[in-house]
Amino acid sequence: MLEIKNLTCGYTGNFFVQDINFKVNNKEIVGIIGPNGSGKTTLLRGISRTLKPKKGAVILNGEDIWQMSFKELARKMAVLPQGINPISMTVEEFVLLGRIPHLKNFQFFEDKDDLEIAEECMRLTDTLRFKDHLMTQISGGERQLVFIARALAQQPKLLLLDEPTTYLDITHQVRILDLIKRLNRELELTILMVLHDLNLASEYCRRLILLSNGRIFREGATEDVINYKIIEEVYKTVVVVEKNPVSAKPYVLLVSEDEIKTNSPERERK
Protein backbone atom coordinates (compact mmCIF):
# COMPACT_ATOMS: atom_id res chain seq x y z
CA MET A 1 0.00 0.00 0.00
CA LEU A 2 2.65 2.53 1.09
CA GLU A 3 6.42 2.54 0.77
CA ILE A 4 8.73 5.22 2.15
CA LYS A 5 12.11 5.22 0.41
CA ASN A 6 15.12 7.09 1.86
CA LEU A 7 12.87 10.00 2.81
CA THR A 8 14.44 13.19 4.13
CA CYS A 9 12.17 16.16 4.67
CA GLY A 10 11.69 19.09 7.03
CA TYR A 11 11.97 22.83 7.29
CA THR A 12 14.78 25.04 6.00
CA GLY A 13 17.20 25.82 8.79
CA ASN A 14 15.20 23.68 11.18
CA PHE A 15 14.39 20.07 11.98
CA PHE A 16 14.53 17.24 9.45
CA VAL A 17 13.62 13.59 9.45
CA GLN A 18 16.35 11.72 7.63
CA ASP A 19 16.78 8.51 5.67
CA ILE A 20 13.38 7.08 6.56
CA ASN A 21 12.57 3.66 5.09
CA PHE A 22 9.54 1.51 5.85
CA LYS A 23 6.51 -0.12 4.28
CA VAL A 24 2.86 -0.27 5.31
CA ASN A 25 1.01 -3.29 4.00
CA ASN A 26 -2.58 -3.31 2.87
CA LYS A 27 -5.10 -3.38 5.79
CA GLU A 28 -2.40 -2.83 8.45
CA ILE A 29 -2.65 -0.53 11.45
CA VAL A 30 0.80 0.99 12.02
CA GLY A 31 1.70 3.49 14.72
CA ILE A 32 4.44 6.12 14.73
CA ILE A 33 5.73 6.88 18.23
CA GLY A 34 8.61 8.82 19.74
CA PRO A 35 9.43 11.62 22.18
CA ASN A 36 8.41 15.22 21.58
CA GLY A 37 10.59 16.68 18.84
CA SER A 38 11.53 13.29 17.39
CA GLY A 39 9.93 14.08 14.02
CA LYS A 40 6.58 12.27 14.13
CA THR A 41 4.46 15.10 12.70
CA THR A 42 7.19 16.14 10.27
CA LEU A 43 7.29 12.60 8.91
CA LEU A 44 3.51 12.45 8.53
CA ARG A 45 3.56 15.79 6.68
CA GLY A 46 6.17 14.42 4.32
CA ILE A 47 4.08 11.33 3.66
CA SER A 48 0.91 13.39 3.07
CA ARG A 49 2.65 15.74 0.60
CA THR A 50 2.44 18.75 2.90
CA LEU A 51 6.25 18.86 2.91
CA LYS A 52 8.28 18.26 -0.22
CA PRO A 53 11.10 15.78 0.32
CA LYS A 54 14.70 16.90 0.13
CA LYS A 55 15.41 13.40 -1.11
CA GLY A 56 13.66 10.07 -1.32
CA ALA A 57 10.13 9.19 -2.33
CA VAL A 58 6.69 8.29 -0.99
CA ILE A 59 5.15 5.51 -3.07
CA LEU A 60 1.42 4.85 -2.82
CA ASN A 61 0.15 1.76 -4.64
CA GLY A 62 3.25 1.76 -6.80
CA GLU A 63 3.11 5.45 -7.77
CA ASP A 64 5.08 8.43 -6.47
CA ILE A 65 2.60 10.75 -4.74
CA TRP A 66 4.32 13.78 -6.30
CA GLN A 67 3.36 12.44 -9.74
CA MET A 68 -0.34 12.42 -8.81
CA SER A 69 -2.81 15.26 -9.05
CA PHE A 70 -4.22 16.54 -5.76
CA LYS A 71 -7.62 15.09 -6.59
CA GLU A 72 -6.18 11.69 -7.44
CA LEU A 73 -4.15 11.61 -4.22
CA ALA A 74 -7.16 12.74 -2.14
CA ARG A 75 -9.22 9.86 -3.54
CA LYS A 76 -6.60 7.40 -2.27
CA MET A 77 -5.28 9.02 0.91
CA ALA A 78 -7.12 10.99 3.60
CA VAL A 79 -5.32 12.95 6.30
CA LEU A 80 -6.52 13.92 9.76
CA PRO A 81 -4.04 16.52 11.06
CA GLN A 82 -3.88 17.58 14.67
CA GLY A 83 -5.19 20.88 15.98
CA ILE A 84 -7.99 21.54 13.47
CA ASN A 85 -9.95 24.57 14.58
CA PRO A 86 -13.75 24.33 14.46
CA ILE A 87 -15.42 26.43 11.79
CA SER A 88 -18.90 27.87 11.58
CA MET A 89 -20.64 25.34 9.38
CA THR A 90 -22.90 22.42 10.13
CA VAL A 91 -21.55 18.94 10.72
CA GLU A 92 -23.14 17.73 7.49
CA GLU A 93 -21.64 20.60 5.48
CA PHE A 94 -18.22 19.85 6.97
CA VAL A 95 -18.41 16.13 6.17
CA LEU A 96 -19.47 16.95 2.60
CA LEU A 97 -16.12 18.73 2.12
CA GLY A 98 -14.69 15.23 1.87
CA ARG A 99 -16.57 14.73 -1.39
CA ILE A 100 -14.69 17.54 -3.19
CA PRO A 101 -12.07 15.18 -4.73
CA HIS A 102 -14.92 13.21 -6.32
CA LEU A 103 -16.81 16.13 -7.86
CA LYS A 104 -16.92 16.01 -11.65
CA ASN A 105 -15.84 18.88 -13.88
CA PHE A 106 -18.31 21.74 -13.65
CA GLN A 107 -20.12 20.03 -10.78
CA PHE A 108 -20.58 22.80 -8.23
CA PHE A 109 -22.95 21.09 -5.81
CA GLU A 110 -23.14 17.67 -4.21
CA ASP A 111 -25.50 15.23 -5.85
CA LYS A 112 -27.64 12.49 -4.32
CA ASP A 113 -24.73 10.02 -4.23
CA ASP A 114 -22.52 12.50 -2.38
CA LEU A 115 -25.24 13.13 0.20
CA GLU A 116 -25.78 9.40 0.70
CA ILE A 117 -22.05 8.76 1.14
CA ALA A 118 -21.76 11.61 3.65
CA GLU A 119 -24.74 10.27 5.57
CA GLU A 120 -23.23 6.78 5.69
CA CYS A 121 -19.93 8.22 6.97
CA MET A 122 -21.78 10.08 9.71
CA ARG A 123 -23.64 6.90 10.60
CA LEU A 124 -20.39 4.94 10.82
CA THR A 125 -18.91 7.54 13.18
CA ASP A 126 -22.12 8.06 15.20
CA THR A 127 -22.30 11.73 14.19
CA LEU A 128 -25.50 11.59 12.15
CA ARG A 129 -27.52 12.50 15.25
CA PHE A 130 -26.08 16.02 15.29
CA LYS A 131 -25.60 16.58 11.55
CA ASP A 132 -27.44 19.94 11.73
CA HIS A 133 -25.38 21.25 14.66
CA LEU A 134 -22.66 23.80 14.06
CA MET A 135 -19.11 22.51 14.40
CA THR A 136 -18.53 25.17 17.06
CA GLN A 137 -21.42 23.79 19.15
CA ILE A 138 -20.18 20.23 19.66
CA SER A 139 -17.54 18.87 22.03
CA GLY A 140 -13.91 18.15 21.19
CA GLY A 141 -14.50 14.41 21.14
CA GLU A 142 -17.52 14.80 18.87
CA ARG A 143 -15.55 17.07 16.53
CA GLN A 144 -12.83 14.44 16.24
CA LEU A 145 -15.46 11.93 15.13
CA VAL A 146 -16.71 14.43 12.57
CA PHE A 147 -13.15 14.93 11.25
CA ILE A 148 -12.93 11.17 10.75
CA ALA A 149 -16.33 11.19 9.00
CA ARG A 150 -15.06 13.86 6.59
CA ALA A 151 -11.93 11.79 5.89
CA LEU A 152 -14.08 8.72 5.25
CA ALA A 153 -16.22 10.72 2.81
CA GLN A 154 -13.15 10.87 0.56
CA GLN A 155 -13.45 7.07 0.29
CA PRO A 156 -9.70 6.57 0.70
CA LYS A 157 -7.80 3.33 1.04
CA LEU A 158 -5.15 4.88 3.30
CA LEU A 159 -5.94 7.00 6.36
CA LEU A 160 -3.23 9.10 8.03
CA LEU A 161 -3.96 10.41 11.52
CA ASP A 162 -1.79 12.78 13.56
CA GLU A 163 -2.42 12.20 17.28
CA PRO A 164 -6.19 11.65 16.94
CA THR A 165 -6.69 11.35 20.72
CA THR A 166 -4.84 14.49 21.84
CA TYR A 167 -6.65 16.46 24.60
CA LEU A 168 -9.41 13.85 24.85
CA ASP A 169 -10.42 12.05 28.05
CA ILE A 170 -10.00 8.28 28.27
CA THR A 171 -13.61 7.64 27.24
CA HIS A 172 -13.19 9.51 23.97
CA GLN A 173 -9.68 8.12 23.42
CA VAL A 174 -10.99 4.57 23.52
CA ARG A 175 -14.05 5.50 21.46
CA ILE A 176 -11.93 7.07 18.71
CA LEU A 177 -9.42 4.22 18.55
CA ASP A 178 -12.10 1.53 18.73
CA LEU A 179 -13.74 3.26 15.75
CA ILE A 180 -10.45 3.34 13.83
CA LYS A 181 -9.92 -0.37 14.50
CA ARG A 182 -13.47 -1.13 13.35
CA LEU A 183 -13.00 0.92 10.16
CA ASN A 184 -9.80 -1.00 9.49
CA ARG A 185 -11.68 -4.26 9.84
CA GLU A 186 -15.00 -3.44 8.15
CA LEU A 187 -13.86 -1.04 5.40
CA GLU A 188 -10.42 -2.65 4.97
CA LEU A 189 -8.79 0.73 5.53
CA THR A 190 -5.02 0.87 5.92
CA ILE A 191 -4.13 3.06 8.90
CA LEU A 192 -0.93 4.96 9.68
CA MET A 193 -1.18 7.13 12.78
CA VAL A 194 1.00 9.14 15.11
CA LEU A 195 0.26 8.45 18.76
CA HIS A 196 1.70 10.21 21.79
CA ASP A 197 0.48 7.65 24.34
CA LEU A 198 2.62 4.51 24.29
CA ASN A 199 -0.05 2.36 25.88
CA LEU A 200 -2.67 3.33 23.31
CA ALA A 201 -0.15 2.67 20.54
CA SER A 202 0.63 -0.74 22.01
CA GLU A 203 -3.03 -1.67 22.41
CA TYR A 204 -4.30 -0.61 18.99
CA CYS A 205 -1.40 -0.95 16.54
CA ARG A 206 -0.13 -4.16 15.01
CA ARG A 207 3.28 -2.66 14.27
CA LEU A 208 5.19 0.36 15.56
CA ILE A 209 7.80 2.74 14.16
CA LEU A 210 9.80 4.43 16.93
CA LEU A 211 11.49 7.71 15.99
CA SER A 212 14.38 9.36 17.80
CA ASN A 213 16.12 12.55 16.66
CA GLY A 214 14.58 12.41 13.20
CA ARG A 215 15.51 8.81 12.43
CA ILE A 216 13.94 5.41 12.89
CA PHE A 217 15.31 3.92 16.11
CA ARG A 218 13.32 0.69 16.02
CA GLU A 219 10.58 -0.78 13.84
CA GLY A 220 8.63 -3.98 14.36
CA ALA A 221 5.85 -5.77 16.18
CA THR A 222 4.54 -4.03 19.28
CA GLU A 223 6.25 -6.39 21.73
CA ASP A 224 9.59 -5.91 19.94
CA VAL A 225 9.45 -2.13 20.28
CA ILE A 226 7.77 -1.62 23.66
CA ASN A 227 10.28 -3.00 26.12
CA TYR A 228 11.85 -1.14 29.01
CA LYS A 229 15.39 -1.02 27.61
CA ILE A 230 14.31 0.59 24.33
CA ILE A 231 11.84 3.00 25.97
CA GLU A 232 14.34 4.11 28.60
CA GLU A 233 17.05 4.67 26.00
CA VAL A 234 14.84 6.79 23.75
CA TYR A 235 12.66 8.60 26.30
CA LYS A 236 15.39 9.03 28.94
CA THR A 237 13.13 8.04 31.80
CA VAL A 238 12.77 4.97 34.00
CA VAL A 239 9.82 2.71 33.19
CA VAL A 240 8.52 -0.76 33.90
CA VAL A 241 6.92 -2.71 31.05
CA GLU A 242 4.36 -5.36 31.97
CA LYS A 243 1.67 -7.21 30.02
CA ASN A 244 -1.88 -5.97 29.92
CA PRO A 245 -3.76 -8.68 31.85
CA VAL A 246 -6.61 -8.67 29.33
CA SER A 247 -4.97 -8.19 25.92
CA ALA A 248 -1.44 -9.38 26.81
CA LYS A 249 -0.07 -6.32 24.98
CA PRO A 250 2.94 -4.49 26.51
CA TYR A 251 1.93 -1.85 29.03
CA VAL A 252 4.28 0.94 30.16
CA LEU A 253 4.32 1.93 33.83
CA LEU A 254 6.03 5.13 34.90
CA VAL A 255 8.28 5.25 37.96
CA SER A 256 8.61 8.42 40.01
CA GLU A 257 11.99 9.80 41.06
CA ASP A 258 11.22 9.07 44.74
CA GLU A 259 10.50 5.42 43.94
CA ILE A 260 13.71 5.12 41.94
CA LYS A 261 15.73 6.44 44.89
CA THR A 262 13.92 4.13 47.30
CA ASN A 263 14.08 0.91 45.30
CA SER A 264 17.19 1.13 43.11
CA PRO A 265 19.21 -0.88 42.32
CA GLU A 266 17.28 -3.89 43.61
CA ARG A 267 14.00 -3.37 41.73
CA GLU A 268 13.13 -5.98 39.16
CA ARG A 269 11.87 -4.94 35.75
CA LYS A 270 10.54 -6.75 32.75
Topology:
Blueprint: E1 2-10, E2 16-24, E3 29-33, H1 40-47, E4 55-60, E5 63-64, H2 70-76, E6 77-80, H3 91-96, H4 112-124, H5 140-153, E7 158-162, H6 170-186, E8 190-194, H7 198-204, E9 207-212, E10 215-221, H8 222-225, H9 228-235, E11 239-243, E12 250-254, H10 257-263
Parallel strand pairs: 3-8, 3-9, 6-7, 7-8
Antiparallel strand pairs: 1-2, 1-4, 4-5, 9-10, 11-12
Give a description of the structure:
It is built from 10 helices and 12 strands. With 270 residues, the chain is an alpha/beta fold. The strands form 3 sheets. A 6-stranded mixed beta sheet has the order 6-7-8-3-9-10, sandwiched between helices. A 4-stranded antiparallel beta sheet has the order 2-1-4-5, covered by helices on one side. The model has no long low-confidence stretch (mean pLDDT 91).
The main pleated sheet reads as:
6 strands, mixed
Helix content: 25-40%
Shape: globular
**Helix/strand/pairing category:** alpha/beta
Number of helices: 10
The portion of residues forming beta strands comes to: 25-35%
Determine the N-to-C terminus distance. Answer: 35 Å
Order of helices and strands: EEEHEEHEHHHEHEHEEHHEEH
Q: Which residue ranges are poorly predicted, with pLDDT under 50 across at least 5 consecutive positions?
A: none
Q: Summarize model confidence as the mean pLDDT.
A: 91
> In total, how many beta strands?
12
